[in-house]
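Write out structure tokens for YlaH-like protein.
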Amino acid sequence: MQSWFAAHPLIAYVVIFILLTYVYNRVFRVNQKLSLLKEVMLYALMALGSGILLIFQHDKLPIIQCLLVAVGLMLLVRVRYFLEARQKRRAAADSAKRR
């Protein structure tokens, strides 16, 4: 996988940028909207950071794999929250039936 991404740097850059954007939007984004100029500046800086991470990826550091692990852990947390909410709804429904 590492050698394939080294052979295709444009694809590696796009994958890094997409994963980085996803992690930012799910973890670090505040609830309030930013102005358009701040949004453009933020994504431009993320594009620059993705370029730096691409250099690290090209130097044989597992950047894409680490971002994939981060996204996988975020998905596990979302599934856990979903299952806990469903369990609470069932418990509330069961206690309402007993009354």
